[in-house]
Amino acid sequence: MIIGFTGTRQGMSPEQRRAVEALLIRFDPDAVVHGDCVGADAEFDAICELFDISRRIRPCNLEDMRAHSERRGAQPVAVAQAPMVRNRNIVREADLLIACPLGPDPVVSGTSLRGQGTWATVGFARSVHRDVYVVERNGTVIEEISDEHGLRTIEQMELRLPAEEGA
User: Fold this and answer.
1) Residue 142's beta-bridge partner residues?
2) Domains assigned to the chain
3) What are the backbone dihedrals phi and psi of residue 137, each rounded to the nearest 5 degrees, phi first?
4) What is the predicted pLDDT for the residue at 117?
5) Spatial separation of the C-alpha atoms in residues 52 and 79, rounded to whole Å
6) Residue 8 pLDDT class (50, 70, 90 cuts)
7) Chain-centre distance for alpha carbon 138
8) Three-state secondary structure along 86-140?
9) Beta strands at 141-146 and 152-157: parallel, antiparallel or unpaired
10) Is the pLDDT of residue 127 over 60?
11) Long-range contacts: 136-144, Cβ < 8 Å, 24+?
12) Contacting residues for 77 by C-beta, under 8 A, at least 6 apart
């Protein structure tokens, strides 16, 4: 299984990091793929490195947004691309997508998608029937499972790391 990741350039909250770690433990992926951006992508890469998960990067062509995870052993699998082209390719390569946005879904909240690449990537993943795990800032995980007809089952999950389960 390959997990795709998208997240805010502002980075993950501590609660998001814990939930992402729990998802990685739950799914035990063969590899992950992310956009090698500063912020959440770089933090995700560091978590995956600690978990000894194979890391693939699809960098964007905006140099000032690059985290350069290849310097820590992540494998580039494509030349640098425009951010949304890269994001769609991450979704195409992955079996499911984990997303760590900064704020609420703009479709639900009625705000603009402009400047919200994380949510645009989630929208593309939904359109191609990928399962999506949206990790909110408070660590709540919204699980969106898609069937072959594009129908989605949406549930809120509470995940705990193994050390927290007895607490």
Assistant:
1) 134, 156
2) 2-164 (3.40.50.450)
3) -55, -30
4) 87
5) 24
6) very high
7) 16
8) HHHHHHHHCCEEEEECCCCCHHHHCCCCCCCHHHHHHHHHHHCCCEEEEECCCCC
9) antiparallel
10) yes
11) 136/16, 136/101, 137/13, 137/15, 137/16, 137/101, 137/102, 137/103, 138/13, 138/15, 139/13, 139/15, 139/16, 139/18, 139/19, 140/19, 141/19, 141/23
12) 33, 56, 57, 58, 93
Paired tokens of 10: 């502002």
- Of the pLDDT bands very low, low, confident and very high (cuts 50, 70, 90), residue 148 is confident
Structure token digits, residue 55: 């890391």
Angle ∠(130,161,147) on CA atoms, nearest 5: 20
* Matching residue, tokens 């985290």: 67
3-state per-residue secondary structure call for 53-75: CEEEECCECCHHHECCHHHHCCE
pLDDT tens-place string over residues 24-70: 999 999 999 999 999 999 999 999 999 999 999 999 999 999 999 99
Which residues on neighbouring strands pair with residue 4, listed in sequence order?
Answer: 33, 97
Instruction: Select from 110, 133, 146 the least CA-distant residue to 7.
Output: 133
Round to whole Å and give the CA distance between 115 and 37.
14
Placement of tokens 């359109």 in the chain = 127
Residue type, position 134, single letter: V
